[in-house]
């Protein structure tokens, strides 16, 4: 090969190398969010040591800014007294895929905060290590039984429940006064009436808001509209029922006789820097909103109040509120098992959970938390305990995450006008009819 050809080949190799590096690195040489190529995010070897031989625990979460700031502070304090903890906050919409791919490559973080709907799948695929011993060793570590059932599979416990978040109705007090109402909607009929009466997007006024991309918000809406859970079949399986379709159509387009995707987008804008639903609610441009306790607590002010969603309490057509939760899980290949266990014991202690509640406002899954002054003195304490007692959880199966992701995709297609309500309802209901 001539010298000229050798130089050409060398430049080609150099160019390809630069291109490859740029694909997996972000600005400043940091890994891109969601990149799990090799050791991009959670670098460790079999002994849990990094290339510099420093002992590190890799810990991945997917948290809102307020939650992440509280946990980051705790991790900083913990690292200052012992093992270094490297905390990674993954975008919520990417976390499932990133953690699953990292686990497939054998490069999962030592500790993962997983949505409870993901835990059984990760366990069945061999990505997790049982945590029975950690819970059994601490008789004071009892978790709420409902969320504990979501992290059990094949006779073992695969996650330590961190929190539970009920869906509720946040409402504007002034809007209630405008219609001489002393309380928020208590029935499906009243919910539809509030939505219709206050909905006028042409004047930037809105009725009862729900996030059009949140499957749990849709589930909560269905229950609030009176769709029951009979024989363990959740309301999502009844989406294609004519009665359900009529109620949804009335809610989505309260002033129009037929389905119109353009009106859906006008009536329920996606949250953005220009349209913050909490600001709209506080200023009285929005009458009420289906949301979670944690989001309410982080945005609480004198203009708004918290209430349970409308429900049917008796008879065969009972409905209720819905809960979601998250749990700490341990990779099946933790780098330093003893150090990971020590961190988890401290992280899941009552003292730590109450610190995180105080700053992040997500209800703890720790039973003893509800006897502490911090929670008992909260003005909404009775509401919290009632919601947890009455709340329902989706049955967790190995394919729960797949179903929820598919439902979110179908919701997106309907919202963008790529399929009508009837087609969405048929496809979405089919996801849940064989539970």
TrEMBL record:
Supply the InterPro entries for this chain.
SBP
Name of the protein described by the UniProt record: Extracellular solute-binding protein
Which species does this protein come from? Paenibacillus residui
Q: Which family does it belong to?
A: Belongs to the bacterial solute-binding protein 1 family.
Can you tell which superkingdom this protein's organism belongs to?
Bacteria
Q: Which SUPFAM superfamilies match?
A: Periplasmic binding protein-like II (SSF53850)
Record-annotated membrane-spanning stretches: none
Keywords assigned by UniProt?
A: Signal, Transport
């Amino acid at each position: 090969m001539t010298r000229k050809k050798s130089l050409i080949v060398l430049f080609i190799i150099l160019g390809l190398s630069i291109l490859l590096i740029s694909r997996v690195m972000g600005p400043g040489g940091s890994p891109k969010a969601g990149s799990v190529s090799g050791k991009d995010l959670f670098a460790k070897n079999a002994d849990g040591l990094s290339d510099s031989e420093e002992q590190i625990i890799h810990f991945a979460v997917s948290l809102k800014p307020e939650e992440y700031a509280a946990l980051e502070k705790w991790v900083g304090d913990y690292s200052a007294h012992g093992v270094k903890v490297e905390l990674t906050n993954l975008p919520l919409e990417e976390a499932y895929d990133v953690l699953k791919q990292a686990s497939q490559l054998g490069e999962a973080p030592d500790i993962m905060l997983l949505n409870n709907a993901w835990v059984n799948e990760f366990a069945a695929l061999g990505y997790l290590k049982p945590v029975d011993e950690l819970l059994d060793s601490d008789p004071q570590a009892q978790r709420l039984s409902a969320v504990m059932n979501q992290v059990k599979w094949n006779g073992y416990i695969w996650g330590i429940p961190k929190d539970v978040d009920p869906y509720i109705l946040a409402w504007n007090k002034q809007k209630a006064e405008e219609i001489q109402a002393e309380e928020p909607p208590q029935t499906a009929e009243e919910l539809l009436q509030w939505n219709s009466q206050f909905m006028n997007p042409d004047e930037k006024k809105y009725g009862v808001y729900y996030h059009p991309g949140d499957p749990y918000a849709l589930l909560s809406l269905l229950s609030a509209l009176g769709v029951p859970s009979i024989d363990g079949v959740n309301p999502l399986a009844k989406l294609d029922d004519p009665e359900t379709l009529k109620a949804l159509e009335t809610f989505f387009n309260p002033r129009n006789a037929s389905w119109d995707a353009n009106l859906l987008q006008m009536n329920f804008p996606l949250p953005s820097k220009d349209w913050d639903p909490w600001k709209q609610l506080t200023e009285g441009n929005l009458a009420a909103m289906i949301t979670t306790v944690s989001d309410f607590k982080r945005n609480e002010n004198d203009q708004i109040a918290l209430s349970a969603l409308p429900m049917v309490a008796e008879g065969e057509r009972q409905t209720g509120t819905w809960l979601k939760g998250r749990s700490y899980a341990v990779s099946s290949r933790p780098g330093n098992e003893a150090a990971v266990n020590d961190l988890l014991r401290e992280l899941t202690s009552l003292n730590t959970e109450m610190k995180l509640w105080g700053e992040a406002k997500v209800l703890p899954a720790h039973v003893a938390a509800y006897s502490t002054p911090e929670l008992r003195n909260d003005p909404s304490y009775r509401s919290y305990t009632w919601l947890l007692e009455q709340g329902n959880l989706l049955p967790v199966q190995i394919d729960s995450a797949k179903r929820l992701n598919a439902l979110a995709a179908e919701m997106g297609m309907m919202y963008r006008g790529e399929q009508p309500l009837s087609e969405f309802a048929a496809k979405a209901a089919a996801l849940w009819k064989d539970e």
